[in-house]
What we know:
alpha+beta, globular
Amino acid sequence: MLGSYRGMWEEFVSAAQTADWENPSLERHAIGDALVILRHGLWLAHEKKRVIKGEPTLTPEVTSLTPGAAPTRAKVTDCVDDSNFLVHTRAGERVEGGASTGRHRTTAVLSLRKGTWYVTTFVLREAGTC
């Protein structure tokens, strides 16, 4: 399941390079609210003629599995560091201001569907929360 969580971020990072909010690969690892959040963030960047370059640093841990015997739901806790995942203009210039970068406490819920784990929700808190 951590592979699905990491995969969600990999697809987001890839799509963020061009702010491609319609990229179908986002659906490989994210569904429901998680997919809506990813697409919305990319749509906002697209509308502002921005892209996001670099990569966040992830340190995810599975913090719960339910039910215990044959889990179909998992909770992942992470401290996402986006210090090297920065907003730029399409021309490549760094955009100053906006949300602070740093380490963000992140929680995600994953669900097992037809043998595959998907991120269904996640919350990325403000910088400095971990």
